[in-house]
Sequence to fold (1818 residues):
Amino acid sequence: MAKYVYLFGAEKTEGSAKMKDLLGGKGANLAEMALLGIPVPPGFTITTEVCRYYYKNGGRYPEGLAEQVQAGVRFLEGATGRKFGDPENPLLVSVRSGAPVSMPGMMDTILNLGITDRAVEGLAARTSPRFAYDAYRRLLSMYGSVVLGIKDEVDPFHEVMEELKRERGASSDLDLTAEDLEELVRRYQDLIQKNGKEFPQDPWEQLWGAIGAVVRSWMNERAQVYRRLYRIPEDMGTAVNVQAMVFGNLGNRSGTGVCFTRDPATGENRLYGEFLLNAQGEDVVAGIRTPNPISKQAKTDPTQISLEEALPQVYSELLRIRDILERHYRDMQDVEFTIEEGRLYILQTRSGKRTGFAAVRIAVEMAEEGLITEDEAILRIDPAEQLSQLLQPIFDPKAKARAKVLAKGLAAGPGAATGRIALSAPRAVEMAQEGPVILVRHETSPDDIRGMAAAQGILTARGGLTSHAAVVARQIGKVAVVGCEALHLDYGKRELRVAGEVLREGDWISIDGTTGEVLLGKIPTQPSEVVQVLLTKTLKPEEAPVYQLFEKLMRWADARRRLGVRANADQPDQAQVALAFGAEGIGLCRTEHMFFAEDRIPYMQEALVAPNAAARKRALSALQRMQVQDFEGILRVMDGKPVIIRLLDPPMHEFLPKEEKDIRALAERLGLKFEELRAQIEALQEFNPMLGHRGVRLGITHPDLYDMQVEAIFRAAAKLKKEGLTPKPEVMIPLVGHVNEMKVMRERVVEIATRVMAEEGVEIHFKVGTMVEVPRAAITADEIAREAEFFSFGTNDLTQMTFGYSRDDAGKFIREYLERRILPEDPFETLDRNGVGALMRIAVEKGRKIRPDISLGICGEHGGESRSVHFCHEIGLDYVSASPWRIPVARLAAAQAAIKGGKVGVAGD
Amino acid sequence: MAKYVYLFGAEKTEGSAKMKDLLGGKGANLAEMALLGIPVPPGFTITTEVCRYYYKNGGRYPEGLAEQVQAGVRFLEGATGRKFGDPENPLLVSVRSGAPVSMPGMMDTILNLGITDRAVEGLAARTSPRFAYDAYRRLLSMYGSVVLGIKDEVDPFHEVMEELKRERGASSDLDLTAEDLEELVRRYQDLIQKNGKEFPQDPWEQLWGAIGAVVRSWMNERAQVYRRLYRIPEDMGTAVNVQAMVFGNLGNRSGTGVCFTRDPATGENRLYGEFLLNAQGEDVVAGIRTPNPISKQAKTDPTQISLEEALPQVYSELLRIRDILERHYRDMQDVEFTIEEGRLYILQTRSGKRTGFAAVRIAVEMAEEGLITEDEAILRIDPAEQLSQLLQPIFDPKAKARAKVLAKGLAAGPGAATGRIALSAPRAVEMAQEGPVILVRHETSPDDIRGMAAAQGILTARGGLTSHAAVVARQIGKVAVVGCEALHLDYGKRELRVAGEVLREGDWISIDGTTGEVLLGKIPTQPSEVVQVLLTKTLKPEEAPVYQLFEKLMRWADARRRLGVRANADQPDQAQVALAFGAEGIGLCRTEHMFFAEDRIPYMQEALVAPNAAARKRALSALQRMQVQDFEGILRVMDGKPVIIRLLDPPMHEFLPKEEKDIRALAERLGLKFEELRAQIEALQEFNPMLGHRGVRLGITHPDLYDMQVEAIFRAAAKLKKEGLTPKPEVMIPLVGHVNEMKVMRERVVEIATRVMAEEGVEIHFKVGTMVEVPRAAITADEIAREAEFFSFGTNDLTQMTFGYSRDDAGKFIREYLERRILPEDPFETLDRNGVGALMRIAVEKGRKIRPDISLGICGEHGGESRSVHFCHEIGLDYVSASPWRIPVARLAAAQAAIKGGKVGVAGD
Fold:
């Protein structure tokens, strides 16, 4: 028969840490601890297989389970010398869930199981009536709510107790007498009966009720949401741990607590935690009583009594166990313990959750201590969630705690920002003269760029994590919260309504781009230590311990990664940031933003709608002079490193006015008839601009725009070359879908480059390649590779077209898809391996087959997302390109990918 | 050394018909005829390889060519007993192009080459001065324009001759005397000199000049356009044929003519053609003199003298040769001949161009005569170009010839239509009461359906061959011309401007959907014979010979094809048409059009924006009742045959009003606040509706719409089942991109179907499947096949997303792409094998791997396009689905594909 129950304890232990999938994290760890000789209360684990069986078979248990559970209880009776249901000396057990992946607090737990009306008397006799009835009332309330389902917004058991406390004039649970608690047990039983339920007086019935409740709690809503959030598979299942109770509430030599083997906030190497004397575990968790610190040193208030002072032997035992655990588990542990009359029991240990700061410090220090390898240190840190915390400006935590949270949106650009509300980009620019500004819009568009750059942070009511606002914010390192649908903007009244508040333009607001929170009022912020060292230079490395850890980790990572890391940057200052963060080149220099500047857009417009060829040519010449400066700037900063410049991508209408008055003004300026200009602009409107006349299509039908850009690139490069620098421009053609597009454009680029180089008398090393962003380009990559020296996967557009999702529109249904698990994850956030990824794989294979030395990279937003970076490593790209502020994330993720090799997964899996 | 020159003639023939690629069609045929013993003037062919070499090597000829040409000329001298450049008895030759694929009239020809100022005297002595100078002046004018490039809008040589004729009072060339012609030769030479050129007096120089001109004519503009039109590869090259001249202008026992071995207009099995006595070939082609018929029977005027009468022996020789040619070539031949002093020479034979009617008749009759097999008969007919002519209404040809052509657009719905201009769909409906209407719009949209149905024809200024207008027109069998950019519509003034005309709403206009012509005024039309038999039943089969041929051909085709043929049809009447044309099921029943009817749209709108759940439910119930009738209707017509019903596809905003006044009216009707409704409608607007919230995405977020449709399908089927019929509904989920979408929807459909069948007490055979139209669906077809019982390739959207082309917007640049040969063909017209096709192939393989009995079809517009049908056969689809009027095309194309097997190509290749 299959084995469904595994014993653990000092006497016998059948499992181990290796059996996490079967026994769950908690069960496997308890078994492991027992094997290590750490004092754990004896118990047994019902495997996750039972949970899976249960859901596959309409709520039935597998055959043989009943007998094995019975044998398990017998084992506990032997180990404790107590008997299940015995009126004299009853065995009490806890029943807890324990999934293979930690899901703290998500599922249900029952304690003190085994007490009945008869057994409580025996228990009272052996301990004290107060203890016995306290234990019983706890069982009743937990069983009542968890197993019998008696619950409400306010816990009815809690209400009954509060009422009794009022009657008795008791301020704390501890003020209730044994008689009070006996009365409470009666009232709890009445409450259960009033709800039409019954508390079973057979302990076996109690046990099976509790097992069922734990198994079912796997599918409760909280647990489902948690799994979705942490990408835990639905069919993993939970184990059930049945364990002999030990009691922290047997008087003042008893207690319970939680500790971390290192500080989970800062990572400092010291035992950190809190405990309560004479209490059970949930008292700590529930926060009913304020716990005391474990160590004397951590006291913040002289009235506190630390464990070190209260029970010094237990404290030193805990220090000893901490060493065993860290040596064994080689990670910071989160440990639950109970002290029963001076004897320490460890109830649970697991890797502790930690801040990004702590994660980096613990990993680096453990590696330096020799506890783990540098490889392991690198793998321990989640690049996006943890490492990037080191770059983010932060709110003063106290001030933030006092502020009113108005709403929550999508955390799009990490960090903290505070400023006055500006409801338009021009206003943002204007107001930014006076002080910090938050630009608040329905959504942003390319002509908001200057306003976005001027603002401290960007807040939008619409759009997802790859909306214009989010993408630009990350690229220029702005704090951003997007898609905050609770915002009601009224541009006309210059106000916004949210959470009952009416805020006017100019009012203070704060946004937390790490959590997505929108907060009322002004909250002070400061740049992070790493940023102060690398960018603002307001700190020296030696004054910055966090920077030193960061620097060490990055050094380790760089030594391991195979993928190159480049930046998506359009401007010299962005390129500077990228360099400071470790970029080895520019993977994507977009050129369209360059035309939206106030001094350029008029020329751009003239180039597009000029009334005659001469005017058009004049405008293009003016633009070319400016473009030469643009390219000179970025090539100068990136001297010696490759700079991929993408030729103009957006459709023409984005550069032209939409409002009648602006059209009139433009017509007047260019000497055109208003009606004709309006008709011309209208004719450029498209039903699906995403799939319209843009990119190379424009380059082919309107060649002089591209010609101008290409000439500017080579004029700029020539100038630098003559100064003795080594410019490495690479010209990228966007939106190629057919080899002939690439062929025509490559020939044209080479022709212009050759001419310019001849005129300038220099040789410049350059390449011509394409963005692979149209599905057809991936499918016909072999054909295209004949004409392209590099491919850069534009996975934003490739994802849009492969899924048929417009990222400007899909926000609403994608959210629902994710909630309903129709999509396992947002494909604009994490690269879709099976669809988009399969196309990339095809393109890589076909491209390399034809041109073995083809350079392959990615410049979509996925280039800065860890799991996507891993995939890029796996399919053999040469580099990833990410927004400047994501460069460290990409470097770390690339190192993790290299260490893990082909294996799929993320840090912490 | 490579062989570049192949001889032919009675004495020696080195080539044959098999060497078409090398010798061109004309050269190979001349060789073949020589081998058959048919009298051809001796000559030699310079291979196509020389032409290819010439273009690859910057206009140089391969080494050895000169020597081989010289030897060729020596051969001609031997065969004719004349000498090249000889002043006494000069050898004259013609120099003509001849590509492997016939390109009639596209390239240049020089005749009488070899005459010089000295040789003309010898020639005059041996023939007559008149003949000699006539030949010389012809050479000079041809050489002058073709080789020396002396040409203008009006041919300057022609002008000089006309002037001389005026001076001499001559009404025809024949009235000019030998002296006149000698004078003309002088004037021609003056003309050449005045143009700074010189006519070479060395015949070899003449010969090389002519060879060069012919080779260069391969790249002239006409030839390029022709190749693009007929998809002839650029690098094929042309051969050059140098042949001894024979003269049709040596008096009244000489002549020249063209004949077809069967009637190219009707296909009738009789020698058909025309000739001129005492004339050279180009006189027939140029239409300077009106030719006479070949046979007595064909005389339309008693003053004509047929060849049969004029030269009876030559006539019977021609009849004899005709039999040899048809037996040998097994196809109707287009034969050029010359009679030199009573002796017949065949200059050229090739498969003759023919109308669709002739193509069908010739193929069927030749098969019945045993000349070709039925397979060959099937392969002889181009389904779209020729077979479909048999279905099209036709203009009275004489009336059409008199009408003014206003503009040309894309031929989108074949046939002829005439009617009054209506500039909006409601006006079209209204005006159609009074008489035929042509709906003229910028473009059409789903709410124009009623107007389109009411109109005779549809004319749009924007959009391509798969625009809404084109797709719907083909589906409902309407004549359509789309993307006619010369039209300037002014809805406000209710007028359109084109070609200098201002037409007002109500004016008469005509459109030819076969040619794309837009014509001024009213031109009478009539339905075709096939349509009169099958649909209008106004003719009996036995009265309709064309129908009988059609029917026979279809029978042969059906016996051979492996692909099933279904129809895209939404309505019972369309389904009737489809059945009449041979559909074996419905491959795509779109349901969205059903909601745009006047009596339905209010309910649809209420279902979408109702103020409360009850109202929404009421509206959905009303819609459901109507949908039951819809589905009952179509399932009844298609009894026993599969009917794939696609659930609602378009985004919600398409059903809601856009204009303020309409929104106000709707708000009033539903008791909503105008501002709120407007905001609601605005919130539904999308940047890229193509990639937005539609199809299954809507089905998942708004399940009650799909639920209503699914229930209606099964209620309708149940009703028919109870009547004893065999409904076979198949539910198709649109726009699936991820297996989970399909899973959720399949479960829901099965659940509803099961419930309805239980309630109705019947069992209905049904399937649930998906449209494969999102690239990701193709890539992950293995995953999706687990949940889908059929795939139907929606190649319209699949093409859009694979290329990243919005078909509403891409018209402009696609046209330029085609002209510049960046795209080899319009992917919305012919399936793109390498891109979209590669995705389909992946989907077929992956789908069948997981579900071997999966049903695979195509329902995009490509389902009715021959080359795409061939591809569908090749990748192993089960069926193609086409608009009802394209069904015969699809049947024939499917048979051709089956006959050709895996081989790629089209009829006539």
